[in-house]
Amino acid sequence: MVRAAVLPAVGSPLEITDIDLPEPGPGQVRIKLAAAGVCHSDLSLTNGTMRVPVPAVLGHEGAGTVVSVGEGVTHVSPGDGVVLNWAPACGKCHACSLGEVWLCADALTGAGSVYARRSDDGSDLHPGLNVAAFAEETVVAANCVLRAPEGVPLTDAALLGCAVLTGYGAVHHSARVREGETVAVFGVGGVGLATLQAARIVGASKIIAVDVSPEKEELARKAGATDYVVASETTAREIRGLTGKQGVDVAVECVGRAVTIRTAWESTRRGGRTTVVGIGGKDQQVTFNALEIFHFGRTLSGCVYGNSDPAKDLPALAGHIRAGRLDLSALVTEHIALDGIPAAFDNMVAGKGGRALVVF
Q: Residue 192: its pLDDT value, please?
């Protein structure tokens, strides 16, 4: 019996309750969580922006220690430190055959399974985004488990499972920022802070952070921002003013709102790249006219999970961490317990802070 944060239904508040986990079956791993990040995607599951079967235990960004393994699992053993991969690639679908593992058609198949039961009434529970990290312990498919990088505390390594892979990948894989280019990052939450650090690591010459909150400027500058703009109706004009009236080479949108996506587009120079990382609802309609698409010659692209391959990117990230170029602690503005998750969601909605980290 372990404590977990359960979403009983879309639109309902989380319930912190006891759940019963089975022992790992063939091809499964049981993990004792060290920490789990509270991501905006978890909030999107509670309000229905993203849909998964419910009731569910949420949480998809986490790290911990292997407790036990099922038959056939050989790549990890009890006692190993691991990072959870909420979107494991099947290796067989069309996207995987193209090497685009972040678009795997079957990555979220496990979210439809029953992986545990509530202790109070025995009702079935689903693993929100495959890994159910908002719990003291979890049982996951073996392909959802990656060895944690050596020398990285597990409480920090939790952030590698979503925020850092997404932000790093947005810069390195999606936008492909080159040394000396200028970058604007919209949204200074966990992913935005990771994106700022990634832009600094690649050697961007000017890194402009944009957020609705003036209080986030110190966080942004610590992560690598050279300039800070408080979001307003004149944001695009301000960014052009900071870049010789040209606009940035690359804009990365980490919010998922139509107005922010449109502003990021307008902040990008002719021939530049705009990458959308934020997950917005179907009601967030973005419009462009045919003439501006021709005239500006910009590229607008979506970015799923940083267009990353976790198995390949984790070692690269570990190198940056060990060299002191990537500071995971700079993403975290609050350490909380399980019962602090609803308040962390409220802060997210209000635009406060960076990443809240559940520490077990």
A: 97
Distance in angstroms (rounded) separating the CA atoms of residues 140 and 28: 6
HEC per residue, the chain: CEEEEEECCCCCCCEEEEEECCCCCCCEEEEEEEEEEECHHHHHHHHCCCCCCCCEECCCEEEEEEEEECCCCCCCCCCCEEEECCCCCCCCCHHHHCCCHHHCCCCCHHHHCCCEEECCCCCEEEECCCCCCCECEEEEEHHHEEECCCCCCHHHHHHHHCHHHHHHHHHHHHCCCCCCCEEEEECCCHHHHHHHHHHHHHCCCEEEEEECCHHHHHHHHHHCCCEEEECCCCHHHHHHHCCCCCCEEEEEECCCCHHHHHHHHHCEEEEEEEEECCCCCCCCCCCCCHHHHHHHCCEEEECCHHHCCHHHHHHHHHHHHHCCCCCHHHHEEEEECHHHHHHHHHHHHCCCCCEEEEEC
Mark the ranges of the chain whose per-residue pLDDT is less than 70: none
Distance CA 93, CA 102 (A): 11
pTM reported for the whole predicted model: 0.95
Q: Residue 42 has what pLDDT?
A: 92
C-beta neighbour count of 68 within 10 angstroms: 15
Cis geometry, peptide bond prior to residue 55 (ω within 30 degrees of 0): yes
